[in-house]
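Supplementary material to the annual report.
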Amino acid sequence: VSRWACPGCGYFYDEAAGHPREGFPPGTPWADVPDHWVCPDCGVREKVDFELATDD
Amino acid sequence: MEATTADSHHHHHHDHERVEVNPADWTDPKRYAWLLGIVVPLAPFMAWGSVALTGFGGFWLLGPVLVFGAFPLLDIAVGVDPSNPPDSILKWLEQDRYYRWCTYIFIPVQYAGLILACWLWSSGDLSVLDGLGLAFTVGVVGGIAINTAHELGHKRASSERWLSRVALAQTGYGHFFIEHNRGHHVRVATPEDPASSRLGESFWAFLPRTVFGSLRSAWGIEAERLDRVGESHWTLRNDILGAWAMTVGLFAVLAIVFGPVVLPYLVIQAVIGFSLLEVVNYLEHYGLRRDKREDGRYERCRPEHSWNSNNVASNVLLYHLQRHSDHHANPTRRYQALRHVEEAPQLPTGYAGMIVLAWFPPLWRRVMDPRLLDHFEGDVTRANIQPRKRARILARHGVGAEAAP
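Predicted assembly:
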């Protein structure tokens, strides 16, 4: 289970939590999120820009 | 320096506080000025009082006179202030809840004014002309309310996002909340963005393109989300339909309480309100264009892709919206912490005056086209050009029409 960070704002995509409102139920792997999906908080950075968050 | 900050990767686990400035040693020169944001929503009350005192019906137009007359003059009289809060203080400044309340308080005043207007329209004391004047004033409040909604709609807290939708209900522009955050911010300053105006495109050509284009785009974004969730498009969980239901409910309640006579005025004020928002959209990115990279994606939005202004009066009126480059670099940043960016192209005056200029396309072109050309160091091919006029504009600047878009 990994977490991916938007490089533009403080948002994290956490695979364990998913993002149900965006259509990603808990446990949805990052690989299943479409490439053109945009950060739901800042709306600026796309999935391909996200960085793997190693620690917190 | 500012661009470095905007482009640098933020690390989420540390706050990087450089303790050069102690919050106690720095005072925000605009701190109490933000309270003036409620002057515009108070306009219906001031108009009513002024007409009652003087008997002069012209005061019903106080809202437009304030925003399109007084504020442009104040921008010239008060001048500019490019000063920024120190970087080390931004986090502290953003968490000060006082600034949030300055925006929250707008909304009850906005709706008190709308109720007052409905009561006046239904009283039978106003001529149709007076009623229309009041509709313009209420519409201007509704348009400025979209700006308040814009500030609130970019925030993470669901309470602020809800307040944003409430502020949009008066103008029926609830879909703006989706299109702006998920559409405009992604495609800003590209030919694909309905809300980015193009060189050679007059405001009057832009208005229908942005109104219908933004609507279509918002629906597409929301439909895609609902498809992923596995829900029907035709439900109140569709954020567009949910937001519009708020407008329908609001207008229905007002029509039941005050009578159907208010309905035409409500429609007129809504059109005036969203047209005001769209003229602001028109001037924010006029002619500016992001380049396409080799991988087919657009370059990141940079400070050079928004028109900015440091005129104090318009900045207070619009919660620093004119510090637009920093807003696009950091959309969730709160208004009080937005910074002037040195690399950003500057408008010759504040947004209030530029709105009036935009209504007169020949004047707009005379002021803005040379400024845009200067920004591109004379290379017109770097502009976002209205396709219909492309050949003519290129020919005028001595460039072959085959030049790559």
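DSSP finds no helices and three strands in chain A.
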